[in-house]
Prior knowledge:
Chain A is mainly α. Helix content of chain A is 76%, strand content 3%. Chain A has helices spanning 2-10, 19-39, 43-68, 72-102; strands at 13-14, 17-18.
Amino acid sequence: MNNLQNIHHSMPIVSQVPILYVIGLVLILFSIGLIGVLSRRNVIVIFMSVEMMLNSVNLLFIAFARLYGDLGGEVMVFFVMAVAAAEAAIGLALVIALHRNYKTVDMAEVAELKQ
Amino acid sequence: MDNILLIIAVWLPLLGFLINGLLALRGKPANQLLVAVAGVGSVAVSFGIFVWLTLNKQAWGQGDAQIATFFNWLNLEGLQLAFAYRFDGLSAFMAWIVTGIGTLIHIYSTGYMKEEKEDFARFFAYLNLFIFSMLHLVLGDNLALLFLGWEGVGLCSYLLIGFDHHKDFAAAAGKKAFITNRIGDAGFLIGMFLLFNLTGSLQYDTIYLRLSGFTDTAFLNTVAFFLFIGAMGKSAQIPLYVWLPDAMAGPTPVSALIHAATMVTAGIFMMARLAPVFLGAPETSTFIAFIGGSTALFAALIALTQTDIKKVLAYSTVSQLGYMFMAMGVGAYGAGMFHLMTHAFFKALLFLGSGAVILALHHEQDMRKMGGLFKHLKLLAILFWVGAIAISGIPGFSGFFSKDMILEHAYTHAKGGKILFGMGIVTALLTSFYMYRLIFLTFHTKEDAVSKMAHSHHGHNHHGDHSHHGGGLVPLGWNIYLPLVVLGILSVVGGYVGLPHLITHETPAIVTYFDKVLAIPPGEIAAGWKVSATHAEEWALMGGSVAVALLGLVLAFVIYQKKNLLPIADGAYRKPLVKWSFHKFYVDELYEALLLNPIKKFAFFCYRVVDARFIDGMVDGLGAAATAFGSALRRLQTGFVGDYAVYIVVGLILAGFIAFGGVK
Amino acid sequence: MNLFSINDLIATAPALVLVTGAILILLLQIVLPKFRLQAAYGVAIAVTAAAILLLVTGIPTSWQAAGATVQILPPIGTPVPLTEAFNRHVLFSGFVSEFSLLILIALLLLLLNSRRLLAELDLNLVEAYLMMLFSAAGLLYFIAAQDLITLFVALELSSLPLFVLAGWDRHSKSSNEAGIKYFLLSVLATTFLLLGIAFLYGASEGRTNLNELFYSLSRQPQSVRFAPFLFGILGWIFIYAAIAFKTALVPFHGWVADVYEGSITFVTSFMASLIKIAAVAVFFKLVMNTPENHRAIVQPVLMVFAVGSMFYGNLTALVQTNLKRMFAFSSIAHAGYMATLFIFPVGSALLAEIQKEASAALFFYVAGYAATTILVFTVIAFLETGDGEKRRITLEDLKGLGKRNPLAAFLLSLGALSFAGIPPLVGFFGKLYILRVLLGSGQYILALFVAINSLLAVYYYARIVFHCYWDYETEGEKLTGSALRSPAAWISGMALAVTVIGLGLVSSPVLRYALDAMVRFR
């Protein structure tokens, strides 16, 4: 409890919303994504979960950028979005090839290389 | 200029190795002429350069060493190592032997191996690599280069022993040599590190300098002991000699070059090179002399009853190496090196000669199936006689001079000299006997091997390659005879550099030479090592050694020529000593019983290390625990991506705990 | 803030040349209907050679430092001047130059093999060269990145083509599986990288430049009660984890064995060499840029990664029978050895000196590792493709190889012996220099772990050699494999063998070069 208060005091406030709340939101979103990655077996769902994690990080960048009045964070968000788009393109191509060979997108079944 | 020549001479054999290696790697039979030119040429030119350098050299004393630095290998704080070569009296002597006899044996091999179409280039590649390593061993200016060469010749030895890897025993022999030598190498490394610890350098001049005032006998005894363990392995002394007889699985030129003339003498050379260490260690030196004496006697006993012509020569080599160690142990460095040289001549001659016999008889190695070859191979038989006379110590031939010098020094040794002499003289008798036995069985007894052979070969052609020669002898070319003749001449005249002082009333030339050359402070040996002997005693010694040599000849003649006795079939001996000798005193079995079995009981995995299944055994045994861990860990690799993601997350959480664990 | 100028382009010329080559291949393919593989192969090799030339002559870096005068061939050993470009987003130093050189040389050697290998697999498409060039360019920027934003973009530039390459054999199930696994885990690692960057960004009041970050963070009090410090630590851990993923350190190693095994061998050797070089270089750079107050806390984590990788890699490799998988696990172990160099004693007065020595040892080790890896995987690739059928090489297949295919057996054994650290091959000296750094900086326990693991590893490497040369009884069909048939492949095979032997023989000068090339590169 003491810790939390300290964080609260040592970080300024983003306009009306305290930065702590934003960080909390980001961590929640990130965790949801992460749990999705860990628990799902469908490639596409896993990939969607990763996208969610990426976007939660974007939110964090924006929050910090606003906090410090620095453009760097916002620039970063654009890069992340561009890269995520490229990743999606390649990822989906891979998934299509995978489906053609395996007739499934369930990662638990795509596990012939092991041990 | 001379320095550049020296470096070229050392590295030329590598060129031969590269050319032949590349030819061999193509995987099809290479042009034999090209291989021979590259293989023989590189060694011969290197020999020529050594001759030239020797002729050019002004003085041979201490401090006159020519040192050529090729490049700095390691240049770290506290450890400087250079690829530097040292051309001094000792290394010049060895370089002559290595490249000189090396050239002859390379020439011989062009004849001996010509049937091995596919492996011809590979064989010469290994031989060249061996010469290259051996030159590093003898010419390197520091112990690290010596060790590099030491390992290099070892590697070539295994490769060449296992050259015919179709034969199971060849591969097994290669492994046996590998393991035995590892034990020796471990000792050598420990000795080397101790020496480095003491002197702070591996470079010879620095070692000599730091040792000159050092008198801690206990420490030097320890160093010398560990270094000698290395020599035991490489030079086949009790108890690490077991690999050498098995090493005869390799082609005969290899036995001549590596397992008789050069590599196995590396231990002797090392002792001469580090003479100041061994001179500072009188107790270890005496120990070495006794190990040498016992090995000489023991191996000669085994040689008495062997029926494989190469095995006889192999045990004979072990025995002669024992002589050399006896000489080194009593401080007679000149005598030891002298015997090294004469032995290189006559043993190379005998091995190559036996190779010629084997080749002529379609790869037959069993002496019981030989006999009567004299009328078919007159020149070869004469050369063989020369070699046998030389090794048995009949006056006028080289072996007599060197062996006599060793026996004399043994006799005058302060500690146990008489016993050493006794071992030596009995060995001399045995040597003479088994050598003439070999000669009679092979060349003389009435049975005619050639006609017998023709008979049996019609029955079954188990040597498919050679069957087209019919039943007769395989003809031997000039390239077989030329090296034999040269070695024959050397076996006769090689001894005259060491005429005994009884005759000339001077110190023998070779002894003067080595006293000057080796890093031995003058007068060092006299102090406490020697007792004096009267002239009469010395004449008696010489007379005794001549007498036993003749006795051996007579005995062999009576038993094998007159009575025409043939060695009986395997294991049929009844008299215990003969039986034991035939079974090599059950040493291999003894090792099994004394060493292997108890260890097997105590620690299962140790046994596996020495197991024939060597490396698999090591993994199974020593690594049993590791393998178990490995098998457990590989289960983590489930193949499911989700699990891998879990590892990442778990890793991160763990990282968090580790990082913040130490923070308030 | 100045806009970018021509100088910026010149400074990154080697990478730009690669990108230009890639785009050229793309364009020529569209414009010329008869554009052939041969031409793409030629272009790829030409631009790589050109990039090496640019780097060796030092033109790009000396351009700015020496004004307009171009300084050709600065003598080896002189420190390369620090050159910044793109508004301090990339920075060239001796450290960056030497690792870039390593990457380009490795790329050249791989390309020399590529045509033959891809042709044997019937996978010889123009785009393969495109992908390799883009990826290598990305790696060059990755090493040179001085700003976390650039670092991220460069990493992606190098990774995206690799996803495609990993799954290059569209019709093969295992290649497919390798591609998708690599993709999913890589993307996951990227999110951690971004989270880490975001945390550091927040902790340092809006900084992404490594240099600024260092000074900003080093002023923080070392207490988790101070939130920015806490964020900083978390940021470093996440970033390290992402780079450790690329370096193949435990516990981020999951993908390594599966992807190495599943990808076509040519791509495997690309991943195992180029990616590893870049990843350890960047890892080292990041550790160097972690201020001491943060490093003191994060360092134990690195130690666990390093030691865990050594043991995990070696122990698991011990029980592998598939050759590619064995080398995959051994590559984890080697990453572990290298990672011990990322650990410096905290609060040492000699830190700068230790770091200099460590960077040189790292350079030497990874150079030797990359050469040996390419050698080994090239041989495996040729063995796989020789019989016309694609197949997995197991240890059993190697029995008697020394007889049937002497060249392949020789090269493979050479590689295995070097990996095992047998003197005088390069692998021995790599380990020797690592041990020297560790002992010199008083980290005896780590040195002990390295020594134990070196012994452990000898077992499975020696097994390869013994199978090749001493074991002759084989059952079933015998593997022969193609000799390295094309001249280019032969050249690269021999060049690698010479490197593996030669780097060992002349290790001292190379190490000295690496030491001299180090200038302050924070």
